[in-house]
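Give me the fold.
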Amino acid sequence: MDSDTYKTIRSSAEGIYKEKGSRFVSVAIPVSGTEDIKPVIDKIRKDHHDARHHCYAYMIGHDRNNWRVNDDGEPSGTAGRPILGQINSFGLTNILIVVSRYFGGTLLGVSGLMNAYKSAAASALLNAEFTERTVQEYYEIAYSYLYMNDVMRILKEENAGQSEQSFDLECRIKINFRISTKEKILNRLTRIDGLSLRYIETR
């Protein structure tokens, strides 16, 4: 993949793994930020309210350095880490995997638990559809209405996205573009008299 692309899943996918009476029900969900995590986990806890554990791992960001694991009462390192291991094995980001365990009455031991959570996570990912996305930078630009045509021509020629437009004597637009095109686009835009740029985020 190019340096400004990343691999994720297109939509939610489910899986299941059974071991000695215990059922491990997994779901892989695409997410865009940490604010997405808690509502999803809360819903899964509600949907699987009779499960004993809801263990998870997530990875967020194109640079893949924002992650977390949670064992939810299982022995330390037996659940969240194996789930994260599958996210890493598939080279994914912007993803949350939750595995809900229905206890079957037989203890699996440390190695048994690690294998079960790993296999359940893999089961969901094997049912998922992968997609490659480009890393986008978002800016707000402000400029005089006189230069509307110049700005629009640049945005069209450079395939930049537009949102939250406000056209008045001073125009404001939220724009986004592939990070690899950043230097070229910003150089063209800043040549327009009086145009100002405000960086918003990269995602």
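The longest strand covers residues 22-30.
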